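Subject: complex prediction, re-run

Hi both,

The earlier run crashed halfway through, so I resubmitted it with identical inputs.
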Amino acid sequence: MTRHFNTETFRGDYTYHNSPEAIRRFPFPFDQDTYTYSVNIAPHPGGPTGSTFEFAFDVDEHYVSEMQDRAITLAEDPNRCQSLPHMELAGWDLLELIMVSKARDYPDLFTLNRDGDQWHWINRPLGIEQRFTFLDPATLPYGPLEYITRQTQGDFALLHERDRNLWLDAGMITSQADWSLDFDVGMNFFEWHAPVPKARQMGVFDKALKFLLAVEQQQAYRRLNWTMTVNPRLDTSPENYHKWGPEKRSITPQNVGQKQFLRVELQTFWRLPRSNALAFPIRCYLCCLEDLCTNPEWARRLHLVLRDIDPVLADYKGFAVNQKTIVEYLAGFSCV
Amino acid sequence: MKKLTLRVAEITALSPLVKRFRLIHPDGAPLPLFSGGAHITVDMPEGDLIRRNSYSLVSNPYDGAGYEIAVRREDRGRGGSLYMHTRVSEGDLLTVSAPKNLFQLDLRARKHVLIAGGIGITPFLSQLHQLDILQQPYELHYAAHSRSEAAGLTLLPDAPHIHLHISEEGSRMDLGAILDGQPLGSHVYTCGPDGLIRAVADQAARLNWPTSAIHSEAFTAPPPGEPFEVTIASTGQHLRVGADQSLLEALEAAHVPVDYSCRGGACGRCETGVSACNGQILHHDHWLSPDEQASQTKIMPCMSRFKGARLELDL
Amino acid sequence: MPTVEFSPSIDSRPTYAPLKSHGSAPAIMVADTAGADALLDLMASDSAVTDKAQIVLIAPASDKLARMDLMVKTPVHTTPDLDTAGPLVRQLLSTARMGTQMYLAGSEGMMGALCALATACGLPMDAIQTEHRGTAARRMQCVHCKGITEDVTTDPFECSHCGLTLFVRDHFSRRIGAFQGVCVDAETPGLIPTTQEIRP
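This time it finished cleanly. Structure:
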């Protein structure tokens, strides 16, 4: 199989773009005309051929460019990847999970040869070939978590289980929806999510924690979350908020279709074998309103969802200031 | 829940009462690895009933060639261990769950203090492998009545940080001496009879150890007891729970769906609401808080029983 | 000084309670001058609490130091500020064993910094008690440049390192021992809300 990887940017001139195929397979997150917090969980992987749910770790046309963008972010701020000392083992578990999955699911792109603890990894799209000793960090150029997540789309949180809670003790977070790993690392599940409005009172996090603690080896799950982003920017970190913040106010009726993106997070949950930690990959998909509206059903539904959403959530998801312009743009499609 | 069908490759007597079972994939495929302290749940079909008991894995967690469990024969139990001892032979196929861990090491610890009583040695056997691989400091204290009962003995390395306390030989475990003066950041783990777990917790509390540094695993097979009846609120169905049956097993036999995992009162998955209770719930779990237990509004059907006129479950 | 009453907040924001004696357990006690009153109250409630206690007072008023000296058997350590208290507390923790209790009393900034230091040394969080006394000023970390600004009393405030104007969040990191400050005019540069006293 030949695959095409886009040459594109997620900052500056923002040349990010979706092919018709990428639009077709975009994981549109709404299954109703209204939105409220829900846990919406399904087993993962598992989905139609070609869908974003088909494989454990989806590799798409943005792969190479996303990895280049991550490298830029890390060069400016190495603390976007952190691992408290007791989490190194979980990092190895994650490295194994990703390498084994990708080599199985994309044999044309990735190869993993294992002879005991002597591993040989080939990543063709990124031009990487690495021989290393599994569980020996001295044989890799980075720690195991950083090494493998520099080669895998999406953010990654590794959660340590203790005291009937989950602790955010490691992660690679370069495309987050406005939260800081450097600040939050070491927090438990409730502290980490403390700034999310309303959800705690609604019991969302109690239920989510209970679910996550029950995730077992050999059975992973997924859910979708979403937010809105102006420009196809991955690094919407609080660290750089003063740099990208002004862009949020650049939306006009003329440019909203191209500049306003629906940002969907495909979150998956995995119990790791050696560490018993939970891996929480957060894969980000971006699609501008104009491209979304090539699907009339999506245009109709997105219009209703964004029009009627709770104002507190519109604010939290970062589009309250542009809500009117967005809704008016979408209304133009749903009348048709 | 992911299930594995494995072949019994070898059965070894570790002591007069304890047998070790080695389980392998029938095709020789590698099994999922696990973490120190993990267990598997074994299905034991008998007629219409499937009894399921959880057993700690005692083999090297980083070795997927096979799983090993050690089962102590409980002649007064409800039959799970007797099934393993009398009905299971080498070459048989057993259905087991994927490994799960409710007793993991806290890898932040500056030092691990492991305290085992009797068959409670089992979860530590896999943890020792993990601690050795990770090169983390630990000491193990293993108490047993006699050498012949100390089934774990043959599986333990002879090392200076492994201490044996055989009460028959007058070598009793002095918990105060063990816990006093441990370095900051130590964690203590206990597995064994309830009395030992309580004694360690009490001693640690006397020495002002914070509770986050005290861990224990007490889950055991469900206890037998008097038969009793329950009512299912949604259907009005009445079920009889036999003397050698757990409430969870009775619900499963009647096809009333209840989620479960550890089947030992530790994980919380089968927590069930009680909509009416005229009598006394006999709580045997380690999940519900004392207040929740006293309120008689929740029950853990994997372990707990009932004595009285009427128990109605919110199912 | 009356105790500050904090408004209800989010889960990451620390809460404080009056110190309770763990009896004669080995202990490390640290207070600033406002917090010294909380230690004195603790000692009055149970004199055994000082049996194996090491006491550090940060910039204490002389009358408080004198009263403390009367209550305890071992000499009270004093340091001029939080920066010098850190290494001393670290040294006391280096010889501490399991069972050691930490009692902290005073400003949120001091307690946040020392909690972070103590847990990094291996002391479990649940071996640390904190009682707030004195100012409602906060220790703030700038999310942009990561610089810490001590004793922040207004919202917004100017980061003492990078100069951005930051708003004061209730989101608190125990690892860093500080609240989070985020650029207040990121989306609308120059549009800065009126400065207010921080509400406890």
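Chain A touches chain C at residues 79, 180, 182-187, 190-195, 200, 238-242, 244-246, 248-249, 321 (CB under 8 Å).

- K.
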